[in-house]
Design brief:
Blueprint (H helix, E strand, L loop, with lengths): L1 H21 L5 H26 L6
Helix pairs in contact: 1-2
């Protein structure tokens, strides 16, 4: 399960890059929301391993 969530968060992180890129070529009305969606998507990719997977409790 940990590997699956890691791969999922990596794919989500990579999906944020086109959002950043396309925000410079779409009409100006959609540029800011698309760029904000890219930021939120990248943040979500970092939240999954931190919150969902948490810290390893091995001693």
């Amino acid at each position: 399960m940990n590997i699956f969530l890691f791969v999922l968060s990596f794919i989500i992180f990579l999906a944020s890059f086109p959002m950043f890129t396309y925000s410079f070529v779409v009409p100006e009305v959609w540029a800011a929301p698309l760029f904000a969606a890219g930021i939120l998507t990248a943040c979500l990719a970092f939240v999954i391993p931190i919150v969902v997977l948490g810290r390893s409790e091995q001693r």
